[in-house]
Amino acid sequence: MNVALIAHDNKKDDIVNLAIAYQNILKKANLFATGTTGLRISEATGLSIHRFQSGPYGGDQQIGAMVANNEMDLVIFLRDPLTAQPHDPDISALLRICDVHNVAVATNMASAEALIRAMDKGLVDFRPKTR
Ligand SMILES: O=C(CO)COP(=O)(O)O
């Protein structure tokens, strides 16, 4: 399973706590993250994470490219709904391309926990074998 982990600054502590709580599940996946999020999680957990650019510098688009290439199973994206982001078009584009390709996305802690537990049970299996 290929899993992307992304969080805006006000949600960084939440995604770190999520990764700590579920590291035994997450360590079985191939993990990808935007730059700062990946650094925070790897420092806190020791999980191995492929880090892309920071979000405002293109990291959301790099993860979107994996989605478009049929290379991503699950996107955990803890968005900050209360703070304007300079790269809002990139954020919208990532969520849009997940919808285009039917990739499971969680944008808050409740849905993130539900999808991580579902993944552990083998229920996040939507990626076409060929496309
Ligand atoms: O801005 C982001 C997502 O839109 C996240 O980027 P960082 O993980 O580099 O902070």
Automatic annotation (TrEMBL):
GO function terms (MF aspect): methylglyoxal synthase activity
EC number: 4.2.3.3
CDD domains xref list: MGS
EC category name: lyase
Catalytic activity: dihydroxyacetone phosphate = methylglyoxal + phosphate
SMART domains: MGS
Keyword Lyase: yes
Annotated keywords: Lyase
Pfam families: MGS
Annotated substrate binding sites: H8, K12, T34, G35, T36, T37, S54, G55, H87
Active site: D60 (proton donor/acceptor)
Residue ranges annotated for the MGS-like domain, each copy included: 1-131
Matches recorded under NCBIfam families: MGSA, PRK05234.1
UniProt similarity note: Belongs to the methylglyoxal synthase family.
Function field: Catalyzes the formation of methylglyoxal from dihydroxyacetone phosphate.
Entry protein name: Methylglyoxal synthase
Species of origin: Alicyclobacillus dauci
